[in-house]
Amino acid sequence: MTEEIIIAGFGGQGVLSMGKILAYSGIMQDEEVSWMPSYGPEMRGGTANVTVILSDEKISSPYLKVFDTAIILNQQSMDKFEESVKPGGVLVYDPNGITHHPTRTDIEIFQIEGNKLAVKMGNKQIFNMVVMGAFLKIKPIVKLENVLAGLKKSLPERYHHLIPLNKEALKIGMDNVTPFKVANQVAHN
Amino acid sequence: MSELKLMKGNEALAEAAIRAGVDAYFGYPITPQTELIEYLMNEQTEKRTGMVCLQAESEIAAINMVYGAASTGKKVFTSSSSPGISLKQEGISYLAGAELPAVIVNVVRGGPGLGTIQPSQADYFQSVKGGGHGDYKLYVLAPSSVQEMSDFVEDAFDIAFKYRAPVLILSDGLIGQMMEKVKLKPQKKRRTDEEVIKECGSWATTGKTKNRERNIITSLDLQSEKMEARVHRLMKKYEQMEKEDLRFEKIQCDDAEYLIVAYGSSARISQKAVEMARAKGIKVGLLRPITLFPFPKKQLFKLADQVKGMLSVELNAGQMVEDVRLSVEFKVPVEHFGRTGGIIHTPEEILEALEQKIINNGTIRHHKTRESSIL
């Protein structure tokens, strides 16, 4: 199994840390992992993205053009990465702030109201874990217990009391992800 | 017992240096290398192992601190990124001239000038063709994974002390900034002063010792004969490096009809291009020089009898390609492909370049003048 993922959004949305937690979860189940961020001017207020690969084989290129899954968290990233999903691949996105919804019909598309659900939970910062839960519902490439073990290993001890909240967020994400149907007239544009 | 961690390349290198029992680090921050010095500072190395970690006032100060500390036989290193490494070149030439063991890390960014902070491999010429003045070479290690960022620290010091010569670890922004799984080696003790005297007492300035001549560290010899003897001594070292310490990796070369030559981050991306080519039924192999000096000349010369053409893939406008051409003595076509300015080539682009420049270009190539090899 090899899963090639791009996670893209605004700096500060937890894009890089979501990738890091995914990578750590992979390590917990003895997989090869790579985490390749876009860095530089893009990180300072603009868009941020990270390529994460989990595989049971040695990973060749950490830098890719096409992906099995794109997790999209803002419009700029949608414009940039919708095209980068492999045919038959998966696109998960938070519709919050999205004006041009995806139009491809050769991929599977899912929505997760990550922002709204996180606000409802009373902690906006947990947003990325809600989205990650949605992704793991569609592609259970890492077990929940390994995500939690990964969190325990990657978080400093003073944040360990937040692990139950993260677990809750993952579950809410899993329960609330919905398939998105591309409307015909849009698809033919 | 080894420890498994998820780390950035820069962090893995820093942690490996602490664990290797390194005595001192002198550096100055610059993107995309800053995590290295940041990590060392955060770890409070003085408390952990007694290792000195100092942010100098400039890159030039840092390399001269390295010169001073290396003169005493201590294990010492510095790091920077391209513009900072340019500033260090005078010091590096002096280290080579004075025959001092030291490790220099370059996490390369785009150039020339201040360039860009994104990954690049445009410092190949600077690394293997001098950089500083005079007849000298650096032993150059090019890691292509976070694991190698960690492993090469000890390897680099071993070579530096074996030859009493500066060693360069040539990384780039991609390998430095990415995270991968890394197996860390156990903590080694730093050598005691007695151990340093025992090992390096014949040349290092380890303090006044009875029954021996003064040790003088210098690169200056105003007598021409003596200076020539020094240069010859250096050349002997480089010959020995070529014989004993050349490193390279061959990937799927056994049945290859075409060859990609690439190092560091480009080797990783090219490996994916090889996988994609093989899936299409094109027999492509990859030769990855692990040391850029010494360079796998003989291996390339031999492979030229087997393959129909070679593509040198580098994140620059065409540098290593010159050494590949020299190595194969024009027995087969050798072309270059690479992106610059901080743009990273995709595996798809590499495969397309291989098809256009080498595979489909075999018959018409002699009637064409060589085009610019940059995209």
How would you describe what is shown here?
The complex is a heterodimer of chains A (189) and B (375). Chain A is of the alpha/beta class and 189 residues long. In chain A, 37% of the residues lie in helices and 24% in strands. Chain A has one domain: Pyruvate-ferredoxin oxidoreductase, PFOR, domain III (Pyruvate-ferredoxin Oxidoreductase, domain 3), CATH 3.40.920.10. Chain A is built from 7 helices and 7 strands. Chain B is of the alpha/beta class and 375 residues long. Chain B has 2 domains: 182 residues, Thiamin diphosphate (ThDP)-binding fold, Pyr/PP domains (Rossmann fold); 120 residues, Rossmann fold, CATH 3.40.50. Chain B has 15 helices and 14 strands. In chain B, helix 1 packs across helix 8. Chain B is globular, with a radius of gyration of 21 Å. Classes of the chains: A alpha/beta (189), B alpha/beta (375).
Biggest interface, chains and residues, is:
A-B, 22 and 29 residues
The structure class of chain A reads: alpha/beta
CATH superfamily of the largest domain in chain B: Thiamin diphosphate (ThDP)-binding fold, Pyr/PP domains
- How much strand of chain B? 15-25%
- Overall form of chain B: globular
The major sheet of chain A is characterized as: 7 strands, mixed
The run of helices and strands of chain B is EHEHHEHEHHEHEHEHEHHEEHEEHEHEH
Low-confidence regions of chain A? none
